[in-house]
Protein backbone atom coordinates (compact mmCIF):
# COMPACT_ATOMS: atom_id res chain seq x y z
CA UNK A 1 0.00 0.00 0.00
CA UNK A 2 1.80 3.10 -1.19
CA UNK A 3 0.10 6.24 -0.08
CA UNK A 4 0.63 9.81 0.97
CA UNK A 5 1.26 8.89 4.62
CA UNK A 6 4.18 6.67 3.67
CA UNK A 7 5.53 8.78 0.85
CA UNK A 8 5.32 12.25 2.37
CA UNK A 9 5.50 11.57 6.08
CA UNK A 10 7.52 8.38 6.30
CA UNK A 11 4.86 6.56 8.25
CA UNK A 12 5.45 2.83 8.29
CA UNK A 13 2.82 0.48 6.90
CA UNK A 14 2.83 -1.30 10.24
CA UNK A 15 1.68 1.90 11.90
CA UNK A 16 -1.04 2.43 9.31
CA UNK A 17 -2.24 -1.15 9.56
CA UNK A 18 -2.37 -0.87 13.33
CA UNK A 19 -4.48 2.30 13.16
CA UNK A 20 -6.88 1.23 10.42
CA UNK A 21 -9.28 -1.01 12.38
CA UNK A 22 -9.32 1.54 15.21
CA UNK A 23 -10.39 4.25 12.80
CA UNK A 24 -13.16 2.05 11.44
CA UNK A 25 -14.46 1.35 14.91
CA UNK A 26 -14.63 5.05 15.72
CA UNK A 27 -16.97 5.96 12.86
CA UNK A 28 -20.22 5.78 14.80
CA UNK A 29 -18.71 7.69 17.69
CA UNK A 30 -17.51 10.39 15.33
CA UNK A 31 -21.02 10.62 13.89
CA UNK A 32 -22.28 11.55 17.36
CA UNK A 33 -19.64 14.28 17.61
CA UNK A 34 -20.71 15.59 14.22
CA UNK A 35 -24.26 15.78 15.45
CA UNK A 36 -23.24 17.93 18.45
CA UNK A 37 -21.10 20.08 16.16
CA UNK A 38 -24.05 20.64 13.85
CA UNK A 39 -26.28 21.65 16.73
CA UNK A 40 -23.71 24.12 18.03
CA UNK A 41 -22.98 25.39 14.54
CA UNK A 42 -26.66 26.24 14.12
CA UNK A 43 -26.72 27.87 17.55
CA UNK A 44 -23.85 30.15 16.47
CA UNK A 45 -25.32 31.01 13.06
CA UNK A 46 -28.70 31.71 14.59
CA UNK A 47 -27.17 34.06 17.18
CA UNK A 48 -25.29 35.94 14.46
CA UNK A 49 -28.45 36.30 12.41
CA UNK A 50 -30.57 37.45 15.34
CA UNK A 51 -27.99 40.11 16.19
CA UNK A 52 -27.96 41.27 12.56
CA UNK A 53 -24.25 40.77 12.12
CA UNK A 54 -23.32 42.69 9.00
CA UNK A 55 -20.32 43.52 6.88
CA UNK A 56 -19.84 46.75 8.86
CA UNK A 57 -19.19 44.78 12.06
CA UNK A 58 -16.15 43.00 10.68
CA UNK A 59 -13.85 46.00 10.78
CA UNK A 60 -12.80 47.67 13.99
CA UNK A 61 -11.90 50.87 15.77
CA UNK A 62 -8.71 52.42 17.09
CA UNK A 63 -7.89 54.78 19.95
CA UNK A 64 -10.56 54.81 22.65
CA UNK A 65 -12.78 52.52 20.65
CA UNK A 66 -15.98 54.50 21.26
CA UNK A 67 -19.03 53.21 19.39
CA UNK A 68 -17.33 50.05 18.26
CA UNK A 69 -20.42 48.38 16.81
CA UNK A 70 -18.50 45.29 15.73
CA UNK A 71 -17.21 44.73 19.27
CA UNK A 72 -20.55 45.42 20.95
CA UNK A 73 -22.46 43.19 18.53
CA UNK A 74 -19.96 40.36 19.00
CA UNK A 75 -20.52 40.61 22.74
CA UNK A 76 -24.26 40.31 22.20
CA UNK A 77 -23.68 37.28 19.97
CA UNK A 78 -21.67 35.61 22.75
CA UNK A 79 -24.36 36.45 25.28
CA UNK A 80 -27.00 34.94 23.00
CA UNK A 81 -25.04 31.73 22.41
CA UNK A 82 -24.36 31.27 26.12
CA UNK A 83 -27.84 32.44 27.16
CA UNK A 84 -26.44 35.13 29.43
CA UNK A 85 -27.54 38.72 29.99
CA UNK A 86 -24.21 40.15 28.91
CA UNK A 87 -20.71 39.32 27.73
CA UNK A 88 -17.30 40.92 27.58
CA UNK A 89 -15.26 39.67 24.61
CA UNK A 90 -12.06 41.60 24.08
CA UNK A 91 -8.59 41.37 22.59
CA UNK A 92 -7.52 43.31 25.69
CA UNK A 93 -8.20 40.17 27.71
CA UNK A 94 -4.78 38.68 27.02
CA UNK A 95 -5.48 35.04 27.80
CA UNK A 96 -7.64 32.74 29.90
CA UNK A 97 -5.72 33.49 33.07
CA UNK A 98 -6.20 37.22 32.57
CA UNK A 99 -9.93 36.81 31.95
CA UNK A 100 -10.24 34.72 35.12
CA UNK A 101 -8.27 37.30 37.09
CA UNK A 102 -10.50 40.10 35.84
CA UNK A 103 -13.67 38.13 36.56
CA UNK A 104 -12.59 37.31 40.11
CA UNK A 105 -10.97 40.56 41.16
CA UNK A 106 -13.92 42.50 39.70
CA UNK A 107 -16.49 40.64 41.74
CA UNK A 108 -14.66 40.21 45.05
CA UNK A 109 -14.04 42.86 47.70
CA UNK A 110 -11.79 42.92 50.77
CA UNK A 111 -13.20 40.61 53.43
CA UNK A 112 -14.91 38.34 50.90
CA UNK A 113 -14.06 34.69 50.49
CA UNK A 114 -13.51 32.76 47.28
CA UNK A 115 -14.39 29.07 47.46
CA UNK A 116 -13.20 26.51 44.92
CA UNK A 117 -15.36 23.38 45.02
CA UNK A 118 -13.36 21.09 42.76
CA UNK A 119 -10.11 21.12 44.64
CA UNK A 120 -7.07 23.08 43.62
CA UNK A 121 -7.73 25.10 40.49
CA UNK A 122 -5.56 25.41 37.37
CA UNK A 123 -1.89 26.17 38.06
CA UNK A 124 -1.96 29.78 36.91
CA UNK A 125 -4.74 30.51 39.41
CA UNK A 126 -2.38 29.91 42.34
CA UNK A 127 -0.84 33.34 42.05
CA UNK A 128 -4.11 35.10 41.27
CA UNK A 129 -5.60 33.75 44.46
CA UNK A 130 -2.39 33.94 46.47
CA UNK A 131 -2.10 30.20 47.15
CA UNK A 132 1.47 30.93 46.15
CA UNK A 133 2.30 34.43 47.45
CA UNK A 134 2.36 36.85 44.55
CA UNK A 135 2.29 40.59 43.90
CA UNK A 136 -1.26 41.82 43.39
CA UNK A 137 -2.93 38.56 44.41
CA UNK A 138 -6.45 38.49 45.85
CA UNK A 139 -4.86 37.59 49.19
CA UNK A 140 -2.98 40.91 49.19
CA UNK A 141 -6.34 42.66 48.85
CA UNK A 142 -7.77 40.82 51.82
CA UNK A 143 -9.78 38.21 49.91
CA UNK A 144 -9.52 34.83 51.60
CA UNK A 145 -9.62 31.47 49.88
CA UNK A 146 -11.11 28.12 50.79
CA UNK A 147 -11.29 24.87 48.93
CA UNK A 148 -13.39 21.72 48.93
CA UNK A 149 -11.77 18.77 47.20
CA UNK A 150 -13.65 16.43 44.92
CA UNK A 151 -14.47 13.03 46.37
CA UNK A 152 -12.23 10.11 45.55
CA UNK A 153 -14.38 9.16 42.56
CA UNK A 154 -14.05 12.66 41.11
CA UNK A 155 -17.55 13.84 41.97
CA UNK A 156 -18.55 16.88 44.01
CA UNK A 157 -18.56 16.63 47.80
CA UNK A 158 -22.01 18.18 48.37
CA UNK A 159 -21.86 17.89 52.16
CA UNK A 160 -18.40 19.41 52.23
CA UNK A 161 -19.55 22.26 49.99
CA UNK A 162 -22.49 23.10 52.25
CA UNK A 163 -20.22 23.09 55.28
CA UNK A 164 -17.57 25.27 53.64
CA UNK A 165 -19.94 28.07 52.68
CA UNK A 166 -19.96 30.87 55.25
CA UNK A 167 -21.24 34.45 55.52
CA UNK A 168 -18.21 35.76 53.67
CA UNK A 169 -18.43 33.35 50.73
CA UNK A 170 -18.98 35.66 47.77
CA UNK A 171 -17.78 33.70 44.75
CA UNK A 172 -17.74 29.95 44.20
CA UNK A 173 -15.36 28.80 41.47
CA UNK A 174 -15.78 25.64 39.42
CA UNK A 175 -13.34 24.44 36.77
CA UNK A 176 -14.99 22.45 33.99
CA UNK A 177 -11.88 20.99 32.38
CA UNK A 178 -9.48 18.86 34.36
CA UNK A 179 -6.56 20.91 33.10
CA UNK A 180 -3.49 18.98 34.18
CA UNK A 181 -4.98 17.38 37.26
CA UNK A 182 -5.67 13.67 37.38
CA UNK A 183 -9.40 13.81 37.83
CA UNK A 184 -12.33 13.34 35.50
CA UNK A 185 -13.58 16.37 33.60
CA UNK A 186 -16.90 17.66 34.88
CA UNK A 187 -19.95 17.45 32.67
CA UNK A 188 -22.24 20.45 32.42
CA UNK A 189 -24.94 18.35 34.09
CA UNK A 190 -22.69 17.68 37.09
CA UNK A 191 -21.79 21.35 37.27
CA UNK A 192 -25.51 22.14 37.31
CA UNK A 193 -26.03 19.91 40.35
CA UNK A 194 -23.18 21.63 42.19
CA UNK A 195 -24.58 25.06 41.37
CA UNK A 196 -27.99 23.99 42.68
CA UNK A 197 -26.31 22.85 45.88
CA UNK A 198 -24.51 26.20 46.32
CA UNK A 199 -27.61 28.26 45.49
CA UNK A 200 -29.59 26.08 47.90
CA UNK A 201 -27.43 27.42 50.71
CA UNK A 202 -27.44 31.04 49.57
CA UNK A 203 -28.90 32.36 46.33
CA UNK A 204 -26.71 35.46 46.15
CA UNK A 205 -23.43 33.57 45.91
CA UNK A 206 -21.83 34.20 42.53
CA UNK A 207 -20.88 30.97 40.76
CA UNK A 208 -18.07 31.38 38.26
CA UNK A 209 -17.13 28.54 35.92
CA UNK A 210 -13.70 28.37 34.30
CA UNK A 211 -14.96 27.17 30.92
CA UNK A 212 -11.54 26.79 29.26
CA UNK A 213 -11.41 23.86 26.81
CA UNK A 214 -15.09 23.12 27.37
CA UNK A 215 -16.93 25.40 24.94
CA UNK A 216 -19.08 23.58 22.37
CA UNK A 217 -18.08 20.13 23.58
CA UNK A 218 -21.66 19.58 24.74
CA UNK A 219 -24.93 21.10 23.54
CA UNK A 220 -25.30 23.10 26.74
CA UNK A 221 -22.87 25.33 28.60
CA UNK A 222 -22.51 25.95 32.36
CA UNK A 223 -24.44 29.20 31.92
CA UNK A 224 -27.43 27.05 30.90
CA UNK A 225 -27.42 25.38 34.31
CA UNK A 226 -27.19 28.42 36.55
CA UNK A 227 -23.60 29.71 36.40
CA UNK A 228 -23.50 33.47 36.96
CA UNK A 229 -20.29 33.82 35.00
CA UNK A 230 -18.41 31.66 32.52
CA UNK A 231 -14.89 32.55 31.52
CA UNK A 232 -12.59 31.36 28.76
CA UNK A 233 -9.80 31.98 26.30
CA UNK A 234 -10.12 32.81 22.61
CA UNK A 235 -6.96 30.93 21.72
CA UNK A 236 -8.81 27.82 22.81
CA UNK A 237 -12.18 26.52 21.58
CA UNK A 238 -14.29 29.65 20.94
CA UNK A 239 -11.60 31.38 18.87
CA UNK A 240 -11.83 28.56 16.36
CA UNK A 241 -8.12 28.87 15.64
CA UNK A 242 -8.58 32.22 13.93
CA UNK A 243 -8.71 34.55 16.94
CA UNK A 244 -5.19 35.94 17.37
CA UNK A 245 -5.77 36.69 21.06
CA UNK A 246 -8.50 37.47 23.54
CA UNK A 247 -10.73 36.17 26.26
CA UNK A 248 -14.36 36.31 27.26
CA UNK A 249 -16.50 36.67 30.36
CA UNK A 250 -20.21 35.97 29.86
CA UNK A 251 -22.78 36.17 32.60
CA UNK A 252 -25.23 38.29 34.50
CA UNK A 253 -25.36 41.99 33.71
CA UNK A 254 -24.03 42.79 37.18
CA UNK A 255 -21.05 40.42 37.01
CA UNK A 256 -20.08 41.46 33.48
CA UNK A 257 -20.36 45.18 34.30
CA UNK A 258 -18.09 44.70 37.27
CA UNK A 259 -15.63 42.99 34.95
CA UNK A 260 -15.83 45.83 32.42
CA UNK A 261 -14.98 48.41 35.09
CA UNK A 262 -12.13 46.26 36.32
CA UNK A 263 -10.71 45.60 32.84
CA UNK A 264 -10.64 49.26 31.84
CA UNK A 265 -11.44 51.72 34.60
CA UNK A 266 -14.24 52.72 36.95
CA UNK A 267 -16.33 55.20 35.01
CA UNK A 268 -15.22 53.92 31.61
CA UNK A 269 -16.19 50.24 31.64
CA UNK A 270 -17.02 48.58 28.35
CA UNK A 271 -17.53 51.84 26.46
CA UNK A 272 -13.83 51.97 25.65
CA UNK A 273 -11.57 49.32 24.19
CA UNK A 274 -10.71 49.42 20.49
CA UNK A 275 -11.16 46.13 18.67
CA UNK A 276 -8.35 47.16 16.28
CA UNK A 277 -8.28 44.67 13.44
CA UNK A 278 -9.48 41.56 15.20
CA UNK A 279 -13.25 41.65 14.80
CA UNK A 280 -13.33 39.66 11.58
CA UNK A 281 -11.15 36.92 13.06
CA UNK A 282 -13.20 36.78 16.27
CA UNK A 283 -16.48 36.42 14.34
CA UNK A 284 -15.11 33.95 11.83
CA UNK A 285 -13.33 31.93 14.51
CA UNK A 286 -16.49 31.74 16.59
CA UNK A 287 -18.37 30.64 13.47
CA UNK A 288 -15.89 27.78 12.90
CA UNK A 289 -15.48 26.88 16.57
CA UNK A 290 -18.12 24.13 16.91
CA UNK A 291 -16.53 22.14 14.07
CA UNK A 292 -12.96 22.86 15.17
CA UNK A 293 -13.84 21.69 18.68
CA UNK A 294 -15.32 18.47 17.32
CA UNK A 295 -12.18 17.91 15.23
CA UNK A 296 -10.01 18.30 18.31
CA UNK A 297 -12.15 15.82 20.26
CA UNK A 298 -11.89 13.31 17.42
CA UNK A 299 -8.11 13.56 17.68
CA UNK A 300 -8.24 13.04 21.44
CA UNK A 301 -10.49 10.00 21.11
CA UNK A 302 -8.30 8.52 18.38
CA UNK A 303 -5.20 9.02 20.56
CA UNK A 304 -6.80 7.31 23.56
CA UNK A 305 -7.92 4.35 21.47
CA UNK A 306 -4.51 3.97 19.84
CA UNK A 307 -2.49 4.23 23.06
CA UNK A 308 -4.82 2.37 25.39
CA UNK A 309 -4.63 -0.65 23.10
CA UNK A 310 -0.86 -0.54 23.46
CA UNK A 311 -1.27 -0.79 27.22
CA UNK A 312 -0.84 2.83 28.25
CA UNK A 313 -3.18 4.47 30.75
CA UNK A 314 -5.30 7.10 29.03
CA UNK A 315 -7.39 9.77 30.74
CA UNK A 316 -10.18 9.99 29.68
CA UNK A 317 -10.11 6.35 28.60
CA UNK A 318 -10.97 5.15 25.11
CA UNK A 319 -14.69 4.75 25.81
CA UNK A 320 -15.62 7.58 28.20
CA UNK A 321 -17.79 10.48 27.09
CA UNK A 322 -15.88 13.73 26.52
CA UNK A 323 -16.43 16.98 28.34
CA UNK A 324 -13.30 18.80 27.19
CA UNK A 325 -10.67 18.44 24.46
CA UNK A 326 -7.70 17.29 26.57
CA UNK A 327 -6.20 13.81 26.38
CA UNK A 328 -3.68 12.49 28.87
CA UNK A 329 -1.53 9.52 27.82
CA UNK A 330 0.79 8.12 30.47
CA UNK A 331 3.84 7.04 28.51
CA UNK A 332 5.80 5.76 31.53
CA UNK A 333 9.33 6.65 30.37
CA UNK A 334 11.07 9.93 29.45
CA UNK A 335 12.14 8.47 26.09
CA UNK A 336 8.55 7.77 25.11
CA UNK A 337 7.29 11.19 26.17
CA UNK A 338 10.01 12.86 24.11
CA UNK A 339 9.30 10.67 21.07
CA UNK A 340 5.58 11.36 21.34
CA UNK A 341 6.17 15.11 21.34
CA UNK A 342 8.60 14.81 18.43
CA UNK A 343 5.84 13.13 16.46
CA UNK A 344 3.32 15.87 17.17
CA UNK A 345 5.89 18.49 16.19
CA UNK A 346 6.75 16.66 12.97
CA UNK A 347 3.08 16.74 11.95
CA UNK A 348 2.77 20.54 12.28
CA UNK A 349 2.18 22.87 9.35
CA UNK A 350 4.48 25.45 11.01
CA UNK A 351 7.89 24.64 12.56
CA UNK A 352 7.66 20.95 11.65
CA UNK A 353 11.46 20.95 11.35
CA UNK A 354 11.97 21.90 15.01
CA UNK A 355 12.83 19.29 17.63
CA UNK A 356 11.15 19.75 21.00
CA UNK A 357 13.42 19.33 24.01
CA UNK A 358 12.72 19.29 27.75
CA UNK A 359 13.51 22.64 29.41
CA UNK A 360 13.28 24.34 32.81
CA UNK A 361 10.08 26.28 32.53
CA UNK A 362 9.53 28.98 35.17
CA UNK A 363 7.00 27.96 37.78
CA UNK A 364 7.35 24.20 37.29
CA UNK A 365 9.19 21.85 39.61
CA UNK A 366 10.41 19.54 36.85
CA UNK A 367 11.46 20.03 33.24
CA UNK A 368 8.69 20.33 30.68
CA UNK A 369 8.60 19.29 27.04
CA UNK A 370 6.27 20.96 24.55
CA UNK A 371 5.37 20.34 20.96
CA UNK A 372 3.50 22.97 19.02
CA UNK A 373 3.64 24.25 15.50
CA UNK A 374 0.88 26.80 15.67
CA UNK A 375 -0.25 29.74 13.57
CA UNK A 376 -1.07 31.59 16.80
CA UNK A 377 1.59 31.51 19.51
CA UNK A 378 0.66 29.12 22.28
CA UNK A 379 -2.78 28.37 20.84
CA UNK A 380 -3.81 25.07 22.34
CA UNK A 381 -6.85 24.68 20.11
CA UNK A 382 -4.18 23.98 17.50
CA UNK A 383 -2.59 20.54 17.69
CA UNK A 384 -0.14 20.54 20.58
CA UNK A 385 1.29 18.29 23.26
CA UNK A 386 3.21 18.88 26.41
CA UNK A 387 4.18 17.10 29.56
CA UNK A 388 6.28 17.38 32.69
CA UNK A 389 9.40 15.18 32.74
CA UNK A 390 8.35 13.18 35.77
CA UNK A 391 6.32 10.07 36.47
CA UNK A 392 4.04 8.94 34.92
CA UNK A 393 5.57 10.80 31.96
CA UNK A 394 2.17 11.93 30.87
CA UNK A 395 1.67 13.57 27.52
CA UNK A 396 -1.16 16.07 27.46
CA UNK A 397 -2.44 16.12 23.94
CA UNK A 398 -4.98 18.63 22.71
CA UNK A 399 -6.28 20.56 19.75
CA UNK A 400 -6.34 20.08 16.04
CA UNK A 401 -8.07 22.60 13.83
CA UNK A 402 -8.89 19.79 11.43
CA UNK A 403 -9.44 16.14 12.25
CA UNK A 404 -7.03 15.15 9.49
CA UNK A 405 -4.22 17.10 11.12
CA UNK A 406 -4.99 15.63 14.54
CA UNK A 407 -5.00 12.15 12.99
CA UNK A 408 -1.64 12.78 11.30
CA UNK A 409 -0.25 13.96 14.64
CA UNK A 410 -1.28 10.74 16.38
CA UNK A 411 0.13 8.63 13.54
CA UNK A 412 3.42 10.54 13.57
CA UNK A 413 3.72 10.12 17.33
CA UNK A 414 3.16 6.40 16.91
CA UNK A 415 5.75 6.32 14.14
CA UNK A 416 8.40 7.97 16.35
CA UNK A 417 7.75 5.51 19.17
CA UNK A 418 7.81 2.62 16.73
CA UNK A 419 11.06 3.54 14.98
CA UNK A 420 12.82 4.01 18.33
CA UNK A 421 11.63 0.57 19.47
CA UNK A 422 9.68 2.09 22.33
CA UNK A 423 6.50 0.21 21.41
CA UNK A 424 5.73 -3.10 19.73
CA UNK A 425 3.06 -3.10 17.04
C1 LIG B 1 -5.90 27.20 29.61
C2 LIG B 1 -6.61 27.25 30.88
C3 LIG B 1 -6.63 28.41 31.66
C4 LIG B 1 -5.98 29.70 31.27
O1 LIG B 1 -4.82 29.56 30.59
P1 LIG B 1 -4.16 30.66 29.64
O2 LIG B 1 -2.93 29.94 29.22
O3 LIG B 1 -3.88 31.84 30.47
O4 LIG B 1 -5.07 30.97 28.51
C5 LIG B 1 -7.33 28.36 32.84
N1 LIG B 1 -7.99 27.27 33.22
C6 LIG B 1 -8.00 26.14 32.48
C7 LIG B 1 -8.78 24.95 32.95
C8 LIG B 1 -7.32 26.10 31.30
O5 LIG B 1 -7.36 25.00 30.56
What keyword list fits this structure?
binds pyridoxal-5'-phosphate; Aspartate Aminotransferase, domain 2; 12 helices; alpha/beta; 7-stranded mixed beta sheet; 13% strand; single chain; 5-stranded antiparallel beta sheet; 425 residues; Aspartate Aminotransferase, domain 1
CATH class group of the largest domain: Alpha Beta
Class by helix and strand content? alpha/beta
| Radius of gyration from CA coordinates | 22 Å
| The CATH fourth-level homologous superfamily of the largest domain | Type I PLP-dependent aspartate aminotransferase-like (Major domain)
How far is the N terminus from the C terminus? 18 Å
Secondary-structure element string: HHHHEHEHEHEHEEEHHEEHEEEH
> What percent of residues are in strands?
5-15%
| Ligand kinds | pyridoxal-5'-phosphate
